[in-house]
Amino acid sequence: MVTDKQDAKRRNRDAPLDELIGAVMDPVLRKRGFASSEILKRWPVIAPPPYSEKSLPDRLSWPRGEETGTLHLRIVPGLRLAATHDAPKILASVNTYFGYLLVERLMLSPSPFIPGSDALPQIEPQPDGATQKRVAEAVGDVDEGPLKDALRTLGESILGRKD
Questions:
Q1: pTM above 0.70, yes or no
Q2: For labeling, which of 51, 117, 149, 153 is most exposed (least CB within 10 Å)?
Q3: How far apart are the C-alpha atoms of 135 and 83, rounded to whole Å?
Q4: Contact present, 39 and 58 (Cβ < 8 Å)
Q5: CA distances from 75 to 22, 38, 49, 71, 162 (A)
């Protein structure tokens, strides 16, 4: 039997994806030393450039009896030497974000960071000849310049849609 409290929780509410998978991901993250997914979700904001885009926290380790931890970082192979030099800056950024001394040491993980495929360029579909001719006729009276180019692009994208 579903109680009113449980029923009220589910009714008419869209939940963000991170809330829905939080129960699944939290045990996995705890094994890697992360109390929550905050450092992973906010890494592009936390880390100083260029490490915000070229690295990712691998795990946090907490030696026994110590209050501060060690941040293990996966990083692009070409920045490993620079990261060892900039370790104080990276650690300061993490500690500043969280507002207390969270990590005191930085270790580079042996496995490299490989950026995702989200940086791949998107290929724009080219309109066919009939669409280009129709748009050229529609904007033919407009003087050459940025306005005509913008109208041409707009017309081609609207007429070229495949709904």
A1: no
A2: 117
A3: 52
A4: no
A5: 25, 19, 13, 12, 41
Residue-wise pLDDT tens digits, 59-117: 888 888 888 889 999 999 889 999 999 999 999 999 998 898 889 999 998 888 877 64
Q: Which helix (H) or strand (E) holds 58?
A: strand 55-61
Q: Residue 44's domain is classified under what CATH number?
A: 3.30.300
Q: Per the structure block, which two tokens stand in for 70?
A: 């060690």
| 76 part of a folded domain | yes
Helices assigned H by DSSP within 16-110: 17-20, 22-31, 38-41, 43-46, 51-54, 80-85, 87-98
Let me know if residue 124 belongs to a domain: no
Q: How does residue 40 score in pLDDT terms, banded at 50, 70 and 90?
A: confident
Domain that holds residue 145: 129-159
